[in-house]
Structures are given as structure tokens and as C-alpha cells.
Amino acid sequence: MKLALSILIPAFAFAQQGEKIFNQTCATGYCHGSKGTTGGAPRLAARGFNRAYIDTTIARGIPGTAMPAFGSTLSPGDLTAVAGYVAALNGISGSAGAPPKAFSPEASRGRELFSEAARGFGRCATCHEVNGIGIPVATPIAVVPPNVASLRSLETPHVRTAVVDGETIPALVIGEGKRGTVLYDLTSAPPVQRSLEPGTVKIAEGGSWRHASAITSYNDAELSAILAYLRAAT
User: 59: part of which helix (H) or strand (E)?
Assistant: First the structure.
């Protein structure tokens, strides 16, 4: 019995630590509410979040929103404790979780560039999602290009040509069937999702759209840092 208590007491103290940090940094009224309820920001309790998403969001924040990154302001122990508390609010228990992955200075810079809000829709996160950050318009990044030249000349075989009401547009088709066609119109950034009635669109393979046109806001050094981040993250 003494052995059991010696195990349970540290776990209980760890949970208390996570709740304390949450109340001090997150449950501030204009952010999240007490015990993960709704405040100025959305509720966190019973949202179905998984542990990986919780860890990533707390450590790195959500670019373009009021959710800050705590990875540089909280100690690794405090990060793990508060993530464990939020996980418990979502029914996840029994694991303290792993601390956020450490990146090299170049990869850390690439992570910032990937979702840098100052670039507006010219950032990578406009069309790509990595570790819960960004918008998954394109398919997940399976193979990271070996260098910047390869990234700039990246082929886009999934981008096709659509003719809608006499207008030709580059399109990423995400659904075709008897009920119609759903596609992303790549004419401008951010891509616009369109649902088209049967018979109102014609799709042809290939087209003139190139990935290079979507990354013009970055120079070679910045793209090199982004590639370092993608290699470390994926």
C-alpha cells in the first residue's frame, strides 16, 4: 500500500501542476475558461483533440490567431504538465506524453516561415498542413524535395485544367460524381473551394499552373530553412 501511494502522489501532484499552470496562463477569462470551458476563446474540454495536436498547439501556438506559442516561455516540465491537463479534459489519461520535438536553429526558422502571418496568403501554410498547422488543400507532403531548385521546379500532376462557364482555371479536384464536382480553384490565393453542378464543368489532365507561382514570397535561403523544417517534422 505504501508503494502504491508513493506512485500515486507524484502523479496527483503532476496533475495539480498542470491545472495550476493552465489557470495562470490559459484560463484568464479573455482566453479560455476555467476547466477548459468557453471564455473569450473556444472551449477545450471534450473536443476530441488527440495528444499530438494538444502538444503541438500548446508549444507552437496557432499562427494568425490569439493563441501564442508557449514552447519558449514554459519549461519542458511545465509544458508537459499543462498538456497532460488539457489531454485529461479530452478524456486522454495514462500518458504524460512526449515533450515537443526539438528542432535545429535552421529548422526552427523554417517552421516560423512556413506559417508566417506577415506573408498573408503567400505562406506555405495557405495550402499545406504540417503537424496540425496550416490548411490541407494539397495532399500531405510525403517526399520532401532535396533542395531549393527541386522545390521551385516541383511537378504538380494532381493539378488539372477545368473549364467552368467558358472560363479556364487551374483546379485541384477533390471529388467527382453524379452529384457534381468539388474542386479548389487555384486562380488566386487562397484557393477557393467550389461545388459545381453536374454538366457545368469539364476537366482535362495537365495544365500550365506551377508550384513555383505559389512560393514567390520566399527567397532561396528562406526556402532552404523551410525544407529543413519539413525534413525534421515529417
Answer: helix 51-60
